[in-house]
Write a structure and sequence with these properties.
By secondary structure, the protein is α/β, with parallel strands linked by helices. The chain has one domain. The protein is built from nine helices and 22 strands. A hairpin with a 2-residue loop joins strand 15 and strand 16. The longest helix has 17 residues.
Amino acid sequence: MKKMMFKTALLASAMLASVASAYAFEEPVFNPSDLKASNPMPAVKRLQELAQKTKLANGLTAKPEAAASIQTPLKTFQYTVTSPRDGLTYTGSIVGSDPRNNGARTTNVEVVLIPLRIEFTGTVRKFDPTSPDVGCMGGNVTTALANTVASPLFNAVDNYTINGVNMGKATFIDAFQRAQFWQDANGAPVVAAKPAYHLGLTVTVAPKQTISLVNGGANGFTTSVSGDCSSNPVSGDNPPRIAELDINFVDAQLNQIITQMGLKPSQFPLFLTYRTVITENGGCCILGYHNSSTYDVTNPGQTYGISLYDGSHLFGGNIETLSHEILEWVNDPSANNLTPAWGNTGQVTGCQNNLETGDPLSGKKMPAVLMPNGISYTAQENAFFSWFYGTGFTGAGGKYSSNGTFTSPQAVCN
């Protein structure tokens, strides 16, 4: 969630940021039972506030910059809904075409998948989604990048079923969007004026980008977890360690890379990490998040995201975080789609008021999907639009989430 970050906490790590010198960093060891889910929203909100303050301090408006406005924007549709939960009217934007529109409704959006290599100096450690991790992912030289590209996030599966309803041939992302808008998107009757509704994500793999930093410094450090499955040498890529990077440091690096690569608002840069998590003020761990350059629902500007591929299964398994972050970007590209307050579910303690589809169900899995590469992929269950607002669309199977956990809208959170 960049507001949507799917975050998991290594509770003890809050005291580690100031430990050790850059040249002899003593890596702490954690027990897997210390890995607990926590809400990333506060960290993302602070990033948003800092970005707005920086713009204002530089004499700039918080609205989309003129240069951005003349570029081709991200393909989104606007919605306005009055929620019976609190009687208020909400406006937001979602990636794709409007399912209520009876015109051609298949929309393709380019995802630029950017492998992110993390290199620590001093106590040298290297983490790379394009390098193998034989002990965790098998001996067929698969990598986090290859496994992500081959996943049902980007490859259509025949007869993808959600809540007992056949979504047709679809990726998980496409199937979810069809399922949550099923009343309007089912394409029945299939006539020229009402073709089936689809959201296609075309993937371009960009050249690998590298971030270098001192191990044990303010920007990040490495840890180990007892029972780690990695058999790689500590001096090589993807050793039995975890990289922890400060969110302010990471976010600045991502924006710099996006600028240097000349990426466009119409594209979704998705940074792929392996064995790498994000911290704020030493507290761990955010596994991914998404953000926008404007937080404006009418024009989200340059959107982007970062997510872990969990080949080590330390945080739930392969594409849970990726599916969480991609769907949250699709349904909240500006990171500012507001909803009636909800909470005390999934990774959220207390109340939250945004259309972050993954947060209410963090830890809940979809049925595994076996792909041709022999890997069973587990996406995360996500909440439907109707769960947040209590109106607007009827989800497939009469449910309010993609694996039937939610059977009614969320009550107002006090």
